[in-house]
């Protein structure tokens, strides 16, 4: 009993999901809302399917073109339940996945560090890293050096 990833025909994620459900299966088709207000699949051409034991029936389902396999093996690649749960936790009350906000700064934008040992230094924003950290390029000893700082410790340089 585990989750697998099924590949569908272009723009037939919902159709394939509906067919699998009609055949007694369980699917998960996470969706996001574009800026235009249109709801689209989070992973175009892919859906998650919970399989009990048999999975080959998926290959003959209308809208399905294949199944993601594990490392060249015959069986499907298994998706950890925790991954599915993390995606589900991001869904709002309408079932739409809410993605993390975009970076506050553009790459290459001048920023000023407001706390810590580099307080007051001006650098170039390079992007977000994991764990609420940001990468900034600072000129130290005559060369650009990437450093990692807390996202709350940088502001746009004036």
Q: Give the name of the CATH superfamily of the largest domain.
A: NusG, N-terminal domain
Number of strands: 11
Shape: elongated
Cross-sheet strand order for the largest sheet: 10-9-8-7-11
Cα radius of gyration in angstroms: 22 Å
CATH topology of the largest domain: Alpha-Beta Plaits
**Helix share of residues?**
10-25%
Uncertain residue segments: none
Structure report:
This protein is mainly β and 158 residues long. The relative contact order is 0.15. Strands 10-9-8-7-11 form a five-stranded antiparallel sheet, with no helix packed on it. It folds into two domains: 2-89, NusG, N-terminal domain (Alpha-Beta Plaits, 2-Layer Sandwich), CATH 3.30.70.940; 110-156, SH3 type barrels. The protein has helices spanning 13-22, 81-89, and strands spanning 2-8, 26-28, 31-33, 39-41, 46-51, 64-67, 110-113, 122-129, 133-140, 143-150, 154-156. A hairpin with a 2-residue loop joins strand 9 and strand 10. The chain is built from two helices and eleven strands; from the N terminus they run βαβββββαβββββ. The mean pLDDT is 90.
